[in-house]
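Sequence design from tokenized structure. All designs in this work follow the same two-part layout: the structure record, then the generated sequence. An example of the structure record is given first.
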């Protein structure tokens, strides 16, 4: 398995590739919608006003996609580190502490058994830290660039994907009032009209005062219990302590440095020379049926040990041109030439896209 967090990179976009009604959005206000009788468009538009929010809180993600519990890295065999961690995100609950001071200062701490993973951004400096592996990566970003993904999906990530995939293929409910982490919120439900997706619905709860997405719930088609839910269980507004955005690796840590400061979104050559923090998928299709593809070499089955190969065989089944797994919400297809395709669609759609 190639050393890259390929599953979060693929699945995070596609499981929430929902769509909302486009005509309403253009005329909607981006102001908070407290104390009013908002439309769904008003609620969605209010999310834009939360980009500079300052807050800290605890985030809980739960997943029930029908996958078996996977072995952990402590004792016994497991998949190679990144893949095991990525698959673990799909089979159990995870808790993270989140600290945000506007668009350029964030810290996410993902706590696991006897280990912690951190992503810290302070302006153009981004640090990632894995206490189990004792490894740190320091990335210098171009000005105004987005930070690498931490592997932890937030309600805002889900909301952004839903909004970015605006098409007329979705039914959007009237907002209802709910409480999330002690805050009043408007909740809307997005239901795909497409018959080609595994997604049944996406529910978004948005803070009435700030427009910050507080909870996102994704249900698979034909199921009443959530397949994926991520939301705040506690949330306090206000700037976190400045020291939280400073990071110095321990003296015995292995540190990798990547300088992307002279790379731009359109300078693929520079990005290739300096490397990039994680593989970026190519997305085909739109809305709920979008498919993400990672390039050849993402998966190298020949490099797997016997235990790792056995677990891969346990999780996947043989299909034309490779191996695949279909959960209640998302499918992943590993081609024989090392590509990875994923989407909230049946495996047959991935196989067709790969051809």
């Amino acid at each position: 398995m190639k050393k890259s967090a390929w599953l979060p990179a693929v699945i995070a976009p596609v499981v929430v590739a929902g769509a909302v009604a486009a005509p309403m959005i253009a005329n909607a206000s981006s102001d908070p919608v407290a104390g009013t009788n908002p439309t769904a468009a008003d609620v969605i538009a209010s999310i834009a006003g939360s980009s500079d929010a300052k807050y800290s809180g605890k985030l809980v993600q739960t997943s029930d996609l029908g996958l078996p519990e996977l072995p952990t890295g402590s004792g016994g065999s497991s998949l190679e580190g990144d893949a095991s961690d990525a698959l673990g995100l799909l089979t159990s609950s995870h808790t993270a502490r989140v600290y945000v001071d506007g668009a350029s200062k964030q810290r996410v701490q993902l706590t696991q058994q006897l280990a912690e993973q951190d992503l810290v951004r302070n302006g153009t400096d981004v640090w990632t830290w894995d206490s189990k592996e004792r490894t740190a990566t320091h990335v210098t970003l171009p000005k105004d660039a987005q930070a690498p993904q931490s592997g932890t999906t937030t309600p805002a990530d889900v909301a952004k994907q839903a909004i970015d995939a605006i098409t007329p293929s979705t039914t959007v409910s009237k907002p209802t009032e709910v409480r999330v982490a002690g805050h009043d919120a408007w909740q809307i439900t997005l239901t795909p009209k497409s018959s080609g997706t595994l997604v049944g619905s996406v529910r978004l709860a948005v803070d009435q005062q700030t427009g910050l997405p507080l909870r996102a719930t994704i249900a698979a088609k034909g199921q009443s219990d959530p397949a994926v839910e991520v939301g705040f269980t506690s949330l306090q507004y206000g700037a976190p302590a400045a020291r939280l955005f400073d990071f110095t690796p321990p003296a015995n840590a292995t540190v990798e440095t990547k300088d992307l400061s002279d790379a731009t979104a359109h300078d693929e050559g520079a990005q290739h020379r300096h490397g990039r923090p994680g593989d970026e998928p190519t997305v085909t299709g739109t809305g709920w049926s979008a498919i993400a593809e990672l390039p050849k070499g993402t998966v190298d089955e020949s490099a797997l040990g016997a235990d790792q190969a056995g677990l891969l065989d346990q999780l996947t089944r043989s299909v034309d041109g490779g191996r695949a797994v279909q959960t209640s919400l998302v499918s992943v297809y590993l081609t024989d030439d090392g590509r990875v395709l994923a989407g909230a669609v049946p495996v047959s759609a991935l196989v067709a896209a790969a051809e």
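The helical segments are 6-14, 22-25, 40-46, 81-88, 155-164, 268-274, 306-315, 347-354. We note this feature because it recurs in several other targets discussed in the main text.
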